Amino acid sequence: QPTSACARETVQLWSETTTSWDPPGSETTEPGFRPMMARRPMIAVSPVENLSVATAVAARDAGLPKPSAILAVYPVGQTGDMGTPSYVDSATAKPLSKAMIGWFVDKLLAKPADAADPRINLVNANLTGLPPTFIINAEIDPLRSDGDLLAAALIRAGVRVERTVYRGVTHEFFGTAAVVAKAREAQAVAGELLKKALSLMP
After folding, report:
1. In the sheet that 42-44 helps form, which strands lie side by side, from edge to edge?
2. pTM of the predicted structure, to 2 decimals
3. Rounded to whole angstroms, how far apart are CA atoms 156 and 135?
């Protein structure tokens, strides 16, 4: 979908699940239920890798409840530089290559100027006030350096960031826990980080 439409829909969904969602079959929200909904984290994995951060920014700007944490798995951090170290050393990686990302970006943008939109060019967005953010990257992935750039931008904005690069694996590894040990490890670590973030919420 066009960037603006996708952004509107995700913010609307976040608004509904944190401020106006009632349990099925009930006429009123159970005591304490709605605050727990607001404690949920935001998680984004391919093919919407940067959506958790972008939606958290939009929710902040709209005055909606802040998520307890952000988990971004191989996020797209920027759209202006396809000459980063990982775009060079993983240019022909499988299942995601530099050429494929270029094709995706071309189809995403309505016009070239949209590449500067902070909803997708996150390193130039206002990231202040976001919750603890956990970034997972694969070593053999054109987007590895984007994770590094996004982490640096979040740290400059005062956000607590933890980032792990899993060696010897490629883009999409995170969903292969049934057969890839590094994926099982990454999922377990992500789960523990999110539980920790939830426990720190008031």
Report:
1. 42-44, 70-73, 133-140, 161-170
2. 0.82
3. 16
